[in-house]
Amino acid sequence: MKYWTNHQARTNQTTEADQLNAELRSSQSAITTLDRTQTPQQAYSNTNMVTNAVRQVWASGGQPAGTQGPLWGSGTTRGEQENIRATAADTLATQFRAVTYQEYSGGWRTAHTQTLTGFQGGQLHIEWAGLAAIFPAFQQTDNNNHPPNQKRMRLRISVAGVVMAERLGTAKSMDSFRIFGSGLYPQGDLTVEYEWRFTPAGQDDAIVFTGAPAAGKHLMQAHVFGCKVLAIARYR
Amino acid sequence: MSRIIRPRLEPGQSIDATDLNTRFTDYSQSGALDLANHAAGSVDLPQIRTENLITIDSARIKLGTGVYDHSVVESVPSAASSPATLYEVGGGTTRLVFGGSGWTIGTGEILRVYWDTSAEPVISGRPYTGNTNSGLLAIDDGSSGQFELNDCLACWVIHLEMDTTSAGLTNWVPVPGQGNYQSGSPAFENTSNMAAQSIVPAWLEYSAQGNAVNGATDARTQKDLHWGGVSGAYWLNPTGSTTIYGLRIVAHGIYHAGFNAANNRLDLVTHVGAASQKMQLTCGQLTAIHQRMG
C-alpha cells in the first residue's frame, strides 16, 4: 500500500486543482485497483476467497440428512441402473430384478445424469464407482466360437454428449469397478451422463428358467448397482 | 471498499478546504478492500496460501499382509451360520488411525476413501450343487429335460467401516450408506445400502452347450478362480460435522443375489461354509483424503 506523497489541505489554505489531481493520480493505482506487485503474498486462503474460486465438487447422494451416503438415486433402487428392469413376476427370487434378454437387445443406456451447475471452465475430473453382475455361462459355447460372445458390462462417462472415458467392461460374474477420466471443458453448466452397455444375446444363451421350481421365469443377464459419482473441477 | 467516483477538479474551478478534505476522506474508508479494488490478474499463486487450501488431511496405510507376492496370505472362511463373522483385513494392524482428535468432516467438505487388495476365491468341488439359494438353474437340455448349471451370482463382500465414538477404536460401524449384513435370516443387505463395498466372485462355471437345438446334457465346466485385483471407493459429504477416528476394511461371505418382491439384495448362503471354501487376501492400500468441496 502507498502513503500520501503530497500533503493534506488545511482550513483556509490556498490551494489549486492540480494539487489534488496529482495526489489522486499518485494514489489511484494503489487504492482503487491493486496490481500484482501490491497484493501481499499468501494473503488469500479458503477463509477470504469465495467458495468455488479455485475448485468445485459435485457428488451424488447425501440425502436425507447425510445418512444415505453417496449412492445416486433414491428409494429401494438407490445406486442401481433402472433402465432395464424385468417385472417382479418374471424375476427369480435368487437373482436381481435387472437386465434380461427379453427386455434388452443392446445399445447404450444412461443410468444416471448429473448436472455440474456453475462450472466455471477448466480441468474436470470425474469418477464413477460401483458394482456389476453378469451371467457368464454361455459366452463361449460350441456355436459361439466364431467368435465367442464375450459378456461384458461396458461403461462410459459422457460430458456434454462427448465421451470422456470408456471402459471395455467388467467381465467377472460379480465385480467392482471404478472408471474415471479428466479433460478441459469450457464454462457453463455441464451435463454428465453415466452410461452402460451389455453384450447382446449370443446364439446359445439360455433366457428362461426351465423346470421346477420356477419354470418360465426370465434369467437375469446383467446388472449395475452400488453406484456413486464424483466430479471435481479445478479453475485457474 | 468502494470505488472513488467523484469527478476530478478542473483548473479554474472553485474549491474550499471542506471539499478538499472530503476528497482525502474518500481514501480513508474503514472498509476492507474488495473485489473491485483488485486489478485483473492481481492475484496469482504467490498471493494464495496453498497449504490446506484444498486438501485438509490425507493418510495412507498398507492394507493386509504387507506382502504383495502371495507368499503370505490371510484367509477368510466362508460362513457356516448366519450372520457371517466380519473378518478385519490385516487383523487390526492395518487400520487408518486419525489420532486422538480424529478428522472432523464439516459441511462443505468431503472425505474420499479408496482401497485395493488382491483376492483369490477358493472353492473345493461344487458345494453349491442342488441348492436354489446358491444360484441353481435348470437349463433345457434339448431332450425334454433339464441340466443343472449355476448362475455364478455368488460373491464375497469387502466393505468399509469407521469409528465415530473415540480414538479407542472399539465401536466400528459401517459408513453411511453401507450395511454390515448382520440382520435377517439368513443375513442380507439390500443393494440400496451398498455404498462402500467391493465384491469378489465366489465361483465360476461355463457351459459349452446352451440350448435345446444342441441337445446338451450336463455340459458345464467349472473354472478355478485365481488371484485378481479388487478395489473400492467411497466418499462422504455430510450435511453436518462428523468426526471420524479411524477406518478399517472387513471381509465376509459367501452371498448370492436375490430379490424379495421389493428389493434387490445379497443373501448369505451358509450351506457352503467350510474351511476349504474361503477367500485369500494378500496386500493393498487404504487411502483417505479430507478435502474442501469448494
Structural summary, described in words:
The complex is a heterodimer of chains A (236) and B (294). With 236 residues, chain A is mainly beta. Chain A folds into 2 domains: 1-43, no CATH class; 55-234, Jelly Rolls, CATH 2.60.120. Chain A is built from 1 helix and 8 strands; from the N terminus they run αββββββββ. In chain A, the strands form 2 sheets. Chain A has a 4-stranded antiparallel sheet with strand order 1-8-3-6, with no helix packed on it. The model of chain A has no long low-confidence stretch (mean pLDDT 88). With 294 residues, chain B is mostly beta strands. Helix content of chain B is 3%, strand content 40%. Chain B is elongated. The interface between A and B is large, with 100 and 105 residues.
Brief characterization of the structure:
The complex is a heterodimer of chains A (236) and B (294). With 236 residues, chain A is mainly beta.
Low-pLDDT parts of chain B are none
- Note the gap between the termini of chain A: 26 Å
Number of strands of chain A: 8
Give the integer mean of the pLDDT values of chain B.
89
Q: What sequence of helices (H) and strands (E) makes up the elements of chain A?
A: HEEEEEEEE
Alpha plus pi helix count of chain B: 1
Distance between the termini of chain B: 25 Å
Q: Could you name the ranges of chain A where pLDDT drops below 50 across 5 or more consecutive residues?
A: none
List the strand order in the largest sheet of chain A.
Answer: 1-8-3-6
Topology as H/E string of chain B?
HEEEEEEEEEEEEEEEEEEEE
**Any idea what the radius of gyration of chain A is?**
30 Å
Helix content of chain A: under 10%
The value of Rg of chain B in angstroms is 31 Å
Class inferred from helices and paired strands of chain B: mainly beta
Strand content of chain A: 25-35%
Report the top-level CATH class of the largest domain in chain A.
Mainly Beta
User: What is the tally of beta strands of chain B?
Assistant: 20
